[in-house]
Design brief:
DNA polymerase, domain 1; alpha/beta; about 230 residues; 9 helices; single chain; six-stranded parallel sheet; 2 domains; globular; Rossmann fold
Length: about 230
């Protein structure tokens, strides 16, 4: 299929353009080495990936705050590994993780090529649930901030995807019409359903090749966007 008569494209950032898992792994590797934390990195990451997703889901639903998210995801993983560690060290790792994560800048394969292809044809934007300072650092260090006319995050909007208000906020900020806009993201709940619920077309970046049932057009590699837009 192809989207026609579109003027504005809204991208999610983490897991869509910015390779979160790769950059996250490099951040933990650096922090563990810096503080001589004797944990097997791969074993840690095997637990961290699903645990982090679980706590982000709770954060999206406003069941926990930022501080709880940052502490509990690490506490739970260290308990699962298992590895005895003081609470003060967990808080230190949490702070350093947020500090150093944006300094790694790996993007998904094809991201720059696709942005170069889209930029002359469309107005490009970001809608992210991530923390404002962290997300701005990612965009800057990955040298992609100049592609985007507007950047909407959940702190600015006061709500998180899939809440319709963040999409409405982003559309208003971009001076865009939802009828001529498309949301591109990796989360069926936050990005796809959130966009659908306000009548915004959505394109699912299924990089992990999930088999969850859905009725959204999808791509498995960012380069496939060229066949759709």
């Amino acid at each position: 299929m192809r989207f026609t008569n579109k003027t504005d494209i809204f991208f999610d950032l983490d897991h869509t353009l910015w390779d979160f898992e790769r950059n996250s792994a490099l951040t933990f590797e650096m922090i563990f080495r810096k503080h001589a934390i004797a944990v097997d990195l791969q074993a840690f990451l095997q637990h961290y990936v699903p645990v982090n997703m679980k706590y982000w889901a709770l954060y999206r639903e406003d069941k926990i705050d930022q501080v709880t998210l940052r502490y509990k995801r690490l506490k739970e993983v260290f308990d699962l590994v298992p590895h005895e560690i003081k609470d003060s060290d967990i808080h230190l790792i949490s702070e350093e993780y947020i500090k150093y994560l944006p300094t790694f800048n790996h993007l998904f394969d094809g991201a720059i090529d696709v942005l170069d292809y889209l930029k002359p044809k469309y107005n490009l934007h970001i809608i992210t649930n991530g923390f404002q300072d962290v997300q701005n650092g990612k965009l800057k260090n990955a040298k992609i901030e100049h592609y985007f006319a507007t950047i909407t995050n959940s702190e600015m909007a006061g709500v998180k995807k899939p809440n319709p208000k963040i999409f409405e906020f982003a559309l208003q900020l971009a001076k865009a019409d939802k009828a001529t806009s498309v949301m591109v993201g990796d989360s069926l709940e936050a990005d796809m359903e959130g966009a659908k619920n306000i009548g915004l077309d959505a394109l699912f970046f299924n990089e992990t090749k999930t088999v969850e049932p859905h009725d959204f057009p999808q791509i498995y590699h960012l380069s496939e966007i060229k066949n759709i837009l």
